[in-house]
Amino acid sequence: MAVEIFFDTNILLYAYDTDAGEKRARASALVAEALRTPSCYALSVQVLQEFFVNFVRSGQRDETAATLVDDFSHWQIVANTHELFLAGLQARARWQLSLWDAMIVAAAEQAGAAILYTEDLNHRQHYGKVQAINPFLESPNA
């Protein structure tokens, strides 16, 4: 089932970072909207793993991180599979991305997302059918 939006890890981390100022406010609003309309959003097992590790590394409790991961699991989850890995390798070669960014692009495409919210890729660039949007630069609907 296709979704509209795929979240990269940094969006989720900013939503819970009390030191992130405006980025926290913007990311929190995006996450709150996604929790209200879960069928429109997706992320990958990679994003869940990265969120957990970095959230705990920032001093948060494992239990809190696990609860948030469970909340995020209401969205479509793209599994780490051999097929996804091969698609990530193709994305890496095509757009000269790091493997980790390429895997995010491949997962967003597999989910059918038109938009990938991230600050790690070129704003407004298309990666196949997926467009990277940095929601901290402007309103995503602008």
Count of distinct structural domains = 1
The second-level CATH architecture is 3-Layer(aba) Sandwich
CATH top level? Alpha Beta
CATH superfamily: 5'-nuclease
Report the order of strands and helices.
Answer: EHHEHHEHHEEE
Alpha-carbon Rg, integer: 14 Å
- Structural class designation: alpha/beta
**Overall pLDDT:** 95
Estimate percent helicity: 40-55%
Tell me, briefly, the overall form: globular
Give the CATH topology.
Rossmann fold
Mind sketching the topology for me?
Elements lengths: L4 E3 L1 H7 L5 H16 L4 E4 H13 L4 H11 L3 E3 L3 H14 L3 H13 L3 E3 L8 E2 L2 E4 L9
Helix pairs in contact: 1-2, 1-3, 3-4, 5-6
Description:
The chain is an alpha/beta fold and 142 residues long. It has a single domain, classed as 3-Layer(aba) Sandwich (Rossmann fold). Strands 3-2-1-4-6-5 form a six-stranded mixed sheet. Strand 5 (126-127) and strand 6 form a beta hairpin. Helix content is 52%, strand content 13%.
